[in-house]
Task: inverse folding
């Protein structure tokens, strides 16, 4: 699994946040930046919809400064849909504002957090 050939297919932004989607075969990487709160969560839910055939999704949140429970719930729903279909989901971040709530809520089994995309790839093994 590699994102070398990944090209941004979508870019979205709002007041204080942005999202970019990149595809590489069966992998979609959503890069989120900024602050994600209740006001953003409905739009985020609309945007986090991988194409048919995508079985692995990564939410790159290394540049997210704030993520409230409503946005974590959007990510959790996506992760559960992927798991139910035999897919995988992971979060990439070292930001405590994102990783700490996931850990405290015990969501690490469904939404594992890794410090870098390479760590996700290593945990998933070869595609």
Result:
């Amino acid at each position: 699994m590699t994102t070398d050939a990944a090209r941004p297919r979508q870019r979205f932004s709002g007041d204080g946040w942005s999202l970019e989607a990149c595809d590489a075969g069966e992998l979609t990487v959503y890069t989120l930046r900024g602050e994600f709160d209740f006001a953003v969560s409905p739009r985020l839910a609309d945007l986090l919809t991988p194409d048919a055939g995508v079985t692995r999704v990564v939410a790159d949140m290394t540049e997210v400064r704030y993520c409230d429970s409503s946005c974590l719930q959007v990510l959790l729903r996506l992760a559960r849909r992927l798991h139910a279909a035999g897919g995988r989901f992971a979060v990439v971040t070292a930001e405590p504002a994102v990783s700490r709530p996931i850990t405290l809520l015990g969501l690490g089994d469904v939404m594992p957090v890794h410090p870098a995309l390479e760590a996700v790839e290593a945990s998933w093994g070869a595609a």
